[in-house]
């Protein structure tokens, strides 16, 4: 029995050892199975992500193809053929700059250009759907204002031509009148100041429209020519000489003079009255005066007197008839 028992115990021990070995192998296989399952799950996730990415990419491609057809009106195959990465990329430059040479397609460079373009587009703001209508209205307004501006420029040119013609005519008339007046002034001055010299001249003969007029007067027996150095009566007589010279150079139907001889002595008054008599042959003279000798040569007198009740009264008296010689 002991031998059988020993063999049985040896068999049991061998079986136990084999069972433990198999358990160890089973545990190792389970670890391998778990690792394989994890790898399978990871591969499955990768495949799923790839399929999702492929589907998204396909949807993006289809969207771009549809956008190319709707917005650009170009077939996707033609678009890829004409504008694909195998084509050279033209260099966009600012207005007025020389265009550069086309460059090979480099994705990073083109992505930077795309970002710059998108940033510039955002800075432009939202698209105004009424921009075309507003532009048409502004263009019409601009065209109208441009025509108005051209009309104004044409009117300005016409007015400037008229101004030049008027200035030329005024200059011609003034020049002729000045020379005639200067000639008459020398004659009149010689009659009012026998033996004296008087003349008028221009301060700026090169510009007849803005020039001034200077008067030089030298009474007989004096060396001074400035008016400020003459006596009051002499200055008055020089002024009257200038007026009479203008009257003779450019006659008028009538003249009104207000006490022009108030500061003159009898001799100079007599000379001035002689000129008055010459002027009234061609013009009517209205002279306001207190000088008796001036009144004596008048055709009619008009005066204002006050009655005893304080009421003023206009008095007139004709000294000679119209057909009576002066």
UniProtKB/TrEMBL annotation:
Q: Where in the cell is it found?
A: Cytoplasm
Tell me which UniProt keywords the record has, alphabetically.
Answer: ATP-binding, Coiled coil, Cytoplasm, DNA-binding, Nucleotide-binding
Residue intervals passing through the bilayer: none
The segment(s) forming the RecF/RecN/SMC N-terminal domain are: 68-312
* GO MF, one annotated term: ATP binding
Keyword GTP-binding belongs to the record: no
Keyword check for Transport, yes or no: no
Coiled-coil residues are 12-67
- List the GO terms this entry assigns under cellular component, sorted alphabetically: cytoplasm
Q: What InterPro entries does UniProt report for this protein, alphabetically?
A: P-loop_NTPase, RecF/RecN/SMC_N
Q: Which PANTHER family match?
A: STRUCTURAL MAINTENANCE OF CHROMOSOMES PROTEIN 3 (PTHR43977)
Name assigned to this protein: Chromosome partition protein Smc
Organism encoding this protein: Nostocoides australiense Ben110
